Amino acid sequence: MARKALWKRSDKFAFGAWTVMNAGGDPFGEATRPQLSGPDAVRGLGERDVYGFEFHDNDLVPIGTPPRRRDAILREVRKIMGSTGIKATAGTTNLFSHRVFKDGAFTSHDPKVRAYAVQKAMAGIDLAAELGAGVYIFWGGREGAEVDVAKDPVEALKRFREAMNFLCAYVLDQGYKMVFSIEPKPNEPRSDMYLATAGHALAFIATLDHPDMAGVNPELAHVKMAGLNVVHEVAQPLEAGKLVDIHLNAQKPLRFDQDMSFGADNPKEALLVVKLLSDYGYAGTKAFDCHPYRTEADPWDFVERNMTAYKLLEAKVDRVNSDARLVAMLEELTGADDAGLGDVLLSYSRKNAAKLRGMKFDPAKLAERRLLYERIDQRLTEILLGAE
Ligand code: NOJ
Ligand code: MG
Fold it and tell me: Of 322, 343, 373, which closes a domain?
């Protein structure tokens, strides 16, 4: 791309190594571009001033790799990290590709499969710790069902919890500085998956032995697949202090997992996600989890466009937040609290309850208030479209 790069490492952008290793194959067709190795993926990202990479255990170390070869790969990746400055920001376990996980990993009926999954996650956690990753993601790709009568969902959640508790205790025992992150998804590859949304994940985390050790990384496309609101899905873990990572991309609602580049489908929605993260000073990594169109010969235009889109949207957020007309209209929405009602509602006390009981409200009068939503929304659209 001819444009001067807009991003810097301090933006804390990351890519899943798997995003650039995607060779264009899909359920209906073969690969369309050469398959990058894990180390080459990390190198390519590092050379483009990307802050970090996320990885599955098998992106770097294919399943069945002998220990000496594993160590050699690790040395190579560390060398690339040293020479390009890229960091390992999040690790995860591939608990979905191998046929052993055809009916789940942590939630499999078979205790041997569950034990193999936990053992594989322990090894992945070791790998992530060795590379310095502070976040470890759990995306339950195969944790779900097609035939609900054949798998008790209550039992499945208990098994999921057992595995997470075991692994939290493992991290503590090893003294690793690492938090877990659950990545929700409603379906695909399973017909229905457990922990489908950020809300499901947050409720589940509260039941863990070490709830402080776990957060959520919502993925925008997964939210759209559930037909939900991406801004709300990110806001809930953010408000709970549980947003430990985010997977940015784009997706038309209610379709197969499209994994398009950030901003490719609904720029207004993307703008509001960037605004949320920037207004609330989100300090974690912003990871892109999508893949190049199948028509691309290599993944590098894709890498650059995602970061460029974020930076352009970030500049728009500054414009939105400093637009006098918009700011004035937004301020008008809240109205003046001349009766000090905010304090009454802040916390329950008998005094506050008595005060509230004694107050007179005129609902018809209150309903007269004009809310300038048409104008506000239009002003946002204008800014997005570059109007003065
Ligand atoms: C692949 C999934 O498509 C993606 O959404 C997820 O973040 C990673 N695996 C991590 O497990
Ligand atoms: Mg993801």
Answer: 322
**Which of 15, 18, 180 to mutate for ligand 1's pocket (most ligand atoms within 8 Å of CB)?**
18
Find the catalytic residue in 11, 26, 56, 289: 56
What separation in Å is there between the alpha carbon of 175 and the centre of ligand 1? Answer: 26
- Asked if 278 and 377 sit in the same domain, the reply is no
* 210 classed as catalytic: no
Q: What are the tens digits of pLDDT across the range 66-98?
A: 999 999 999 999 999 999 999 999 999 999 999
Q: Based on the structure, what is the number of domains in the chain?
A: 2
Residue 378 and residue 306 in one domain: no
Which conformational region is residue 340 in: left (phi greater than 0), alpha (psi within -120 to 50 degrees), or beta? left
Longest dimension (CA), the chain: 77
* Active-site annotation holds for 56: yes
Residue 133 lies inside a defined structural domain of this protein: yes
Buried b / exposed e across 164-175, counting CB within 10 Å, b at 16+? bebbbeebeeee
Over residues 105-152, the pLDDT tens digits come to: 999 999 999 999 999 999 999 999 999 999 999 999 999 999 999 999
